[in-house]
């Protein structure tokens, strides 16, 4: 049987240049996500620029360079799209070379199954095993649903990718692959460490008392979740679990400190669950062939009904700003796309429905603009900003000045609570703005 798989392998093995010949003008191409980026295939496709027109490419959380996007500023030949921007993709958006696709992560598979066209998928995978399977690695969260819907499947074998164990859909069999590409790949440098600030640590300290032994955590990306991971590693909290769309170095820190055991989880007991992983080379080494970790598609990881089954589920995400009504902007600054909707809303709903669950959205109370002027992240009212989480779904909000709970609160109660965690320099002006909007009760104390 092994010889049969090897024979199939060699019959489908082609050069990157040969593989990308299947792309036609007008096609939709998918690069999937993060480390799934097909480096060799992207480079080969970019070389076909002048003979192709109106080729549309999707990806998300991909680090640069994406040569098809970079080689065609006119976008007559290639147009790139992302449904969750990495820092690199954000810069492409700033240059007008990337278009954002709004997407709620738990619907990722359904979008592809019912609404999106994929003519060709190009995805990096780990080397084939003796049973004929290629592993989607840290790209498991999105890869399988996309490859299932593609007319043509091309896999790019990258020996640097860790092999992850999964709940389902972590692999693709050679029988479902049309072309295989090999070549030299640079080792993954890992993402640049996002070091927590003093403000991040102060916010994390405000949240820490809400965590209990046996809680399961979802941490978003950024410096504040990393700060919380550091504090947990130093705390007395024990037997924590992992259920997260994005596995980061914060979980590795907790694991190394003996805090992350997954022993008390009611589902996927004994296993840390994730969809995608982005971090250091040490993080990729940790998830490699680790039976204590299971990768699942986002349709499972981010499904609110699944999240709700986990007792003491704690979701911790960040945002750009919030207004006095409790609306949250977490993916853009004005009209400038920064990241994406991602799974914030998924985990707000799921964690809120969990027995003992809590959903936190965190931010520093102020930010400094390019001219060095400070502004409040708590704003009177959004006007044209992109809303990520509606006020009806927001639960806990935290700044370095405290934690508030907005569930079931009236407009004046929300305004009062939000102003209480605003920076003191802005509280009086926010009270005046609340009075203008008739959401400041006359008996409220100033």
Description:
This protein is globular. The strands form 6 sheets. An 8-stranded parallel beta sheet has the order 1-10-8-6-2-3-4-5, sandwiched between helices. Strands 14-13-12-11-15-20-24-25 form an 8-stranded mixed beta sheet, with helices on both faces. The chain has a 3-stranded mixed beta sheet with strand order 17-16-23, with no helix packed on it. The protein has 16 helices and 25 strands. By secondary structure, it is α/β, with parallel strands linked by helices. The longest helix has 13 residues, at 424-436. The relative contact order is 0.10.
Helix and strand arrangement:
Blueprint: H1 2-12, E1 13-14, H2 16-19, E2 28-33, H3 39-46, E3 55-60, H4 67-70, E4 78-82, H5 87-94, E5 99-100, H6 108-115, E6 120-125, E7 133-135, H7 140-149, E8 152-157, E9 171-173, E10 179-181, H8 198-207, E11 216-219, H9 223-234, E12 241-247, H10 249-256, E13 272-277, H11 281-287, E14 293-295, H12 298-301, H13 304-307, E15 313-318, E16 321-323, E17 328-329, E18 332-333, E19 336-337, H14 344-353, E20 358-362, E21 366-368, E22 374-376, E23 378-379, E24 396-399, E25 402-405, H15 411-420, H16 424-436
Helix pairs in contact: 6-7, 8-9, 9-10, 15-16
